[in-house]
Specification:
The chain has six helices and five strands. The chain has two domains: 2-54 and 66-91, no CATH class; 97-189, Alpha-Beta Plaits (2-Layer Sandwich). The longest helix is centred in the N-terminal third of the chain and has 27 residues, at 2-28. The chain starts with a helix and ends in a 9-residue tail after the last strand. The model has no long low-confidence stretch (mean pLDDT 81). It is of the alpha+beta class and 198 residues long.
């Protein structure tokens, strides 16, 4: 659902910006006169001297009682819609629940954040891992983990990856009753300040 909303909104926004930018470009470069074609009578940009919003357009509704409340209401609704859109974009990458098959015909819900915390703690307990951050994505029935591990200078990434799979991912997969738990793991090096030697 949110993917469809994103595509429609981005498509409409892009189309509107393309039309507005194209209209300003046509008028600013005076292309209709140079290339010999006419624009509709309602078209606001007819030449390089035209402006986006003239004096008459800016002053037309100012004296009306309904003008400023309407402007403020429209801008407030637009702001709420944009904040909602941003919130859904930021939260959709995070899985809040995992459905666990309890083997008796029912399903239980496992808190996604609790599972993330357990995997993070197990990862940070690994020698060579200074810090870990784990996020769950995917679907409730098929979660995917995205982990970022900050490694100490002496750490060996291959060994850390094997231990992360064995000590953190495998227990999480088994406890959630999942057949598989795909994971994307990124490594970063912890930067230390140089020590002064006297």
């Amino acid at each position: 659902m949110i993917k469809t909303v994103n595509r429609v909104l981005l498509g409409l926004l892009g189309l509107g910006l393309f039309a507005l930018g194209g209209g300003v470009l046509l008028g600013g470069l005076d292309l209709q006169r140079r290339w010999g074609f006419d624009v509709p009578g309602w078209w606001p940009f007819r030449g390089p001297a035209d402006v986006v919003l003239g004096d008459e357009g800016r002053r037309r509704w100012r004296a009306e009682d309904w003008w400023w409340p309407t402007v403020i209401a429209v801008l407030a609704v637009l702001l709420v819609l944009l904040l909602w859109w941003l919130w859904t974009l930021l939260r959709r990458d995070r899985l809040h629940q995992v459905l666990v098959d309890s083997r008796d015909g029912t399903t239980a819900r496992l808190d996604g954040r609790a599972l993330e915390d357990v995997i993070e703690e197990e990862a940070q307990a690994t020698d060579g891992v200074a810090r870990a951050r784990v996020r769950l994505g995917g679907r409730r029935t098929a979660p995917v983990t995205r982990a970022r591990l900050w490694l100490e200078p002496h750490a060996e990434p291959e060994r850390i990856l094997a231990r992360f799979d064995r000590d953190a991912l495998a227990p999480a997969r088994d406890s959630a009753g999942l057949n598989r738990l795909p994971s994307e793991v990124g490594f970063r090096e912890v930067r230390h300040r140089a020590h002064r030697v006297d």
